[in-house]
Structure formats: structure tokens, C-alpha cells
Amino acid sequence: MQLIDTHVHLNFDVFTNDLEEICQRWREQGIVRLVHSCVTPSEFPTIQALAHRFPELYFAVGLHPLDVDQWTEASAREIHHLATSDPKVVAIGETGLDYFKASNRPQQEQAFWLQLQIAQRLNLPVIIHCREAAQPMADLLRAFWREYAPVAGVMHCWGGTPAETQWFLDLGFYISFSGTVTFKKATSIHESACMVPEDRLLVETDCPFLSPSPERGKYPNEPARVHHVATQIAKLRGVSLEHLATQTTENACQLFGLTLGSRTPPPPFPVSSSGG
């Protein structure tokens, strides 16, 4: 059985001394590919080094909505350059809107719009963070679709209602569920996990956050625990874990342009001396 964890943050200091052991555990659980998200372009050299240390790890570049105070006139050019500097970059993000922790809505929307433009130009998917912003997010995406063209992507760590879920399905997005889908009281997330078509479903850990049950509350979360997420979704949908794993792995490969081949990870690409 193979799984793909479509959203990790392994560059946190909490992982520094244990990455080899963490890697061994994800390999033992059949995690054959991982997608490392990016909070700010300044992380790029560190994430790139990890992607070449662990051949099954691919990554994104972008600016998180809670970090848009770092956005400058040069940011879009920088993200575009970094996204084309390494063949292991498979997405733009994470980007999006977060109205739960910040009130700088115009700045978030501008940075998100410009990152959508980069994704559209480069034909890369976007990894979208959306918290307390489903309606404005859907409105902005519809506006972008009208002015430019649809962009592929994923609503990551999804926690919206079934009605909100349908908005983003209608826009062509994949929906990714994290450890929150294993929480007993997360009934709305459970309903959303049941309604997503099987060819648009993804799984993730969002590690080091959101450890799933039965590991809930244990920090840091790690990629090996994505099997708990997959197990819960399979139970909710009334399918076998093997079926769920096969389908979500195919979906991740489709969205991010990943290939599997043999179980053995491919050799790493050379890392540029400039770090991108």
C-alpha cells in the first residue's frame, strides 16, 4: 500500500535532530511521496536542501497569507524565479486567505491574486490556505477564472462546511483532509470527506501540526501518521483503506505531476549553489 502526504512542513526546528528516524517511519508506513509546503520564499534554500536529501520529497514556493507583510514589489518575480529554478518544485503555495488571525484583507487578496497569476503562467497548481474566508475566497477565484483562466489546486487542511466544499469542487479543486478529520466532534468535516468525489480527494498531515487521533495532542505531528487520516476517511466513506490509498495516491500524482515507478525513490536532482 502506498500513500502520499500532500502537505508537510519538515523545515521546523523541532524536526532538526530526528529527520532520519522520521523518514524511516514514513517509509515503513508506505509514504512514497511528500509535498513540502512553503510559508515564505526565504524558506526556499532550506526546503530545497531537504528535497534533495530525501528523494521522495517535492516542494512548493509561495507566501502564506499571514506573512503578507513581507510582500514587496519584487516578491512575485522572486516566487516566479524560484518556481522555475528546480524541477522538484511542483506547486505555488501555500497561499490564500486567513481572516481568522489577520485583518489585512486587501494585502492578502493582492498577494494571493498575484500568486494565482504565477501559477497560471507556469501551469502549476496552487496550495490554498483558507481560514474563515470561504466566501471571499470563492468570489476571488471566480473573478480570476473570468479574467484569466482556471488554475488547478488544492484546498489544503480543509475544514469547511459541505456547502463550502461544493463551491471549490465546482471550481475544479481537489480537497485535502488532515488530522482534523479524525476528531470525533468534527462532524462538518466528516460530511465533507464523504461528499468529495474520489478523484478529487487528498490526504495530508500538515505536520508538525494537527496530530490525528489516536496521536491527538502529541507534538510534533509527522508524515507517518497520514495513515490515520486515510484510515478515518476510508471508514467514513465505507471503502477499504487500500482503495482509499490507491485513489488518493493517483490523485496526488495527477495534481502535482508526480511519478512513482518503483518503490525506490529516484535519485536527487543537483542543488544549485545559490539555493535557487
TrEMBL record:
Keywords: Exonuclease, Hydrolase, Metal-binding, Nuclease. This is D-aminoacyl-tRNA deacylase. One of its GO terms (biological process) is D-amino acid catabolic process. Gene3D superfamilies: Metal-dependent hydrolases. Binds 2 divalent metal cations per subunit. It comes from Petrachloros mirabilis ULC683. A divalent metal cation 1 binds at residues 7, 9, 94, 206. Belongs to the metallo-dependent hydrolases superfamily. TatD-type hydrolase family. DTD3 subfamily. It catalyses: D-tyrosyl-tRNA(Tyr) + H2O = D-tyrosine + tRNA(Tyr); a D-aminoacyl-tRNA + H2O = a tRNA + a D-alpha-amino acid + H(+). The keyword Nuclease applies.
